[in-house]
Write a structure and sequence with these properties.
6-stranded mixed sheet; alpha/beta; 7-stranded mixed sheet
């Protein structure tokens, strides 16, 4: 039995001596390399926080003391020492989540994996403890330097620092990176701090007697008339000058918060001492730990892109993927095309939020380094900055994961759309993303974006339409445009039979047309983006049961193209298939537009439920939520046969039954 196998909870760590702790740290690293290599997951960040996490659990008493991780992808070590060592199905259906999960353990608090929120959680938890008399409980937030580029973190620091008795310890895990190297003025400040000398100063400054002595001296001197006040000002200035020579803590102390560090985050004894000093102080303290992402694993350390931030299944010896993707990914298509567009147009600028390589903007940056801006983890700032760039005559292209658009929605609405700014937002990993779980699914964008006035949204179905729609998007100069696409490989080309007015593509017509004087079919299937593949499959399944259908791809789903409404009027039922939430989705919007034009064809919205979907593969999630061709075809067939709502209207007898009513004309009654 290994030492790790004897650890069932944090209390088991406290009886180990220094040698045993070093052995445990080594075993944890070996465990992570072996198991995460086999399943895929966030390897580099967790290798970098082994000693830091062990020290936190040795000094603080979880769950009596609350430990919050930001963003949570570095919580694997925390899981191991809190009784969760079955990593064989990590991030797989029914297995351990890749982020903290309240369902797994009482030691997990914050499940959201969006960055920069942990300090607000810590502020709220610690404030609640203070208000309810739970003065014996500490709150610890572990936050990376990358997450500190997000403004929300500093809003929280501002509030935490205002209460000198709040028992909050902020552990800054400073590895100089988020996904890629951390950018911005704050990152520069941390680098300066890393070069400073600290030694025993922290132990003195985090002793309450130090604070009490200073406070007493201040009271005596400032109450002793003008001479005493002058002496105090001189001594205080000298203290500040000496302190700034010893350690450049600047910004933290200016906010009124004690600063401890920098500390070697891989030195267990040093980390424990720093955390003990911080805990004993009894007020808000920042502990600045210097760590190395991928520490102890040479392949990760040598990876210049992201030091194995997140890996697929790899060979643990070499760090090389065990299989290579043969198909082009959606991200690669965007990468190549935006670089080509930037070569052609000098007004095109790229904006990313700490995700240059994951979003595919690195090729453009290489060719045009001054025209790609990494703002850090700051989506709100990115979108408002984009509005400003548009005002100055540029056309910004903002690259985000779809789930992170939520954070910049207000800025998209009030800064970009309200001002008719020509800004293109590119959303990668839209829809169901799979193993990263509820906070990473990009399933909310379609419902959110349809309420933004004047916004145009494209959902490409294959590589050709991706290229086409991206170019159409950056050609719009007086309104926001959005191009969204899923995670993973681009499928086979899906050529159109015909392009209708407004750019709507007809992908298939299956089954025999019927009706007098009109070419109509039973079912109009509207596929949104990547769901066009499913739409075509549904159409073929219906044809096998004698039900005719037409499959269309609107290409631009916002605003609703007129041709979609016209097609809806010539079918018995409409089925809209999308990989966003059904509530307020594209299906709902098409229904509203149909009703506004007097088209009463029944419509069935097929999409995701308004639920937080747990981690599993994309295919498993689509199966569980009913977004499969088999299930959709079964439900549609039942509607056509009149055994399930929404009921398809009766078979047409003449062409007049299938026309869009003219303005002022009453709609025809359906079934």
């Amino acid at each position: 039995m290994t030492l790790l196998e004897t650890i069932e909870g944090p209390e088991d760590l406290r009886g180990l001596d220094a040698a045993a702790m070093e052995q445990l740290a080594a075993e944890i690293r070996s465990f992570l390399i072996t198991h995460v290599s086999a399943t895929g997951g966030h390897l580099g960040p967790n290798l970098g926080v082994v000693e830091l996490t062990l020290a936190v659990h040795r000094v603080f008493d979880s769950p009596q003391d609350s430990i919050v991780f930001d963003t949570g992808h570095q919580s694997y070590v925390h899981k191991l020492v809190t009784g969760r060592q079955d990593f064989d199905t990590l991030r797989q259906e029914g297995g351990l989540a890749g982020y903290p999960s309240r369902a797994e353990s009482e030691h997990d608090i914050v499940e959201s994996s969006h960055a920069s929120s942990s300090l607000s959680w810590a502020d709220g938890i610690s404030r609640g403890y203070a208000l309810t008399g739970q003065d014996d409980r500490h709150t610890v937030a572990v936050i990376g330097d990358g997450a500190l580029t997000g403004g929300m973190a500093w809003e929280a620091v501002n509030n935490i620092a205002s209460d000198r008795d709040r028992k909050v310890v902020i552990v800054v895990n400073d590895n100089g990176r988020s996904y890629a190297p951390t950018v911005g003025g704050f990152a520069n400040h941390l680098r300066e701090l890393q070069a400073s000398v600290q030694q025993g100063v922290d132990a003195v400054r985090t002793d309450r007697r130090y604070e009490q002595t200073l406070a007493k001296a201040k009271r005596l001197l400032t109450s002793s008339g003008h001479l005493g006040q002058a002496v105090y000002r001189g001594l205080h200035g000298m203290k500040q000058g000496i302190k700034d020579v010893v350690v450049q803590q600047g910004i933290f102390e200016d906010l009124g918060m004690k600063y401890v560090g920098p500390v070697d985050g891989h030195d267990l004894a040093a980390m424990e001492q720093a955390l003990t000093n911080a805990r004993n102080f009894g007020g808000p303290v920042i502990v600045h730990a210097i760590t190395e992402k991928g520490h102890g694993y040479l392949p990760a350390r040598l990876d210049a892109n992201d030091q194995f931030h997140s890996v697929p299944v790899i060979d643990p010896t070499t760090g090389k993927p065990t299989s290579t993707a043969s198909a082009r990914s959606w991200t690669h298509v965007f990468r190549d095309e935006i670089a080509a567009i930037a070569d052609e147009r000098e007004d095109i600028v790229g904006i990313t939020g700490a995700m240059l390589i994951p979003m595919g903007l690195q090729k453009m940056q290489t060719a045009h380094p001054q025209r790609v801006v990494d703002v850090g983890i700051a989506e709100q700032h990115a979108l408002t900055m984009a509005a400003g760039m548009a005002f100055s005559g540029l056309h910004p292209v903002v690259g985000l994961y779809a789930t992170f658009l939520n954070r910049g929605f207000d800025q998209l609405l009030m800064d970009v759309a309200l001002h008719h700014a020509g800004v293109t937002v590119v959303l990668d990993r839209a829809g169901v993303t799979g193993p990263d779980g509820p906070s990473h699914h990009g399933m909310w964008d379609l419902a959110l974006l349809q309420i933004v006035p004047g916004l145009h949204l494209a959902a490409p179905r294959d590589e050709a339409t991706m290229v086409e729609e991206l170019r159409e998007a950056v050609a719009v100069s007086d309104a926001p445009t959005v191009v969204r696409y899923p995670k993973g490989a681009v499928g086979a080309p899906l050529p159109a039979l015909e392009r209708l007015s407004g750019g709507v593509d007809v992908l298939a017509r299956n089954g025999e047309a019927s009706g007098k004087g009109v070419d109509h079919r039973d079912v109009l299937i509207v596929g949104v983006g990547a769901m066009c593949v499913t739409a075509l499959d549904v159409s073929e399944r219906l044809a096998a049961h004698g039900v005719s259908s037409t499959v269309v791809d609107p290409r631009w789903v916002l605003p609703v193209p007129q041709a979609v409404v016209e097609q809806a009027a010539t079918h018995r039922i409409v089925v809209v298939i999308e990989d966003g939430v059904r509530a307020g989705g594209i299906g709902s919007l098409i229904r509203q537009e149909m009703r506004a034009q007097g088209v009463d064809t029944a419509l069935n919205e097929v999409g995701l439920p308004t639920e937080f979907l747990e981690h599993a593969s994309r295919e498993q999630i689509l199966q569980h939520t009913g977004l499969t061709a088999q299930r959709i075809a079964q439900d549609t067939l039942a509607s056509v046969l009149g055994t399930k709502v929404p009921y398809a209207r009766p078979v047409a007898e003449d062409a007049a039954q299938f026309t869009v009513p003219r303005s002022g004309e009453q709609p025809r009654e359906g079934r």
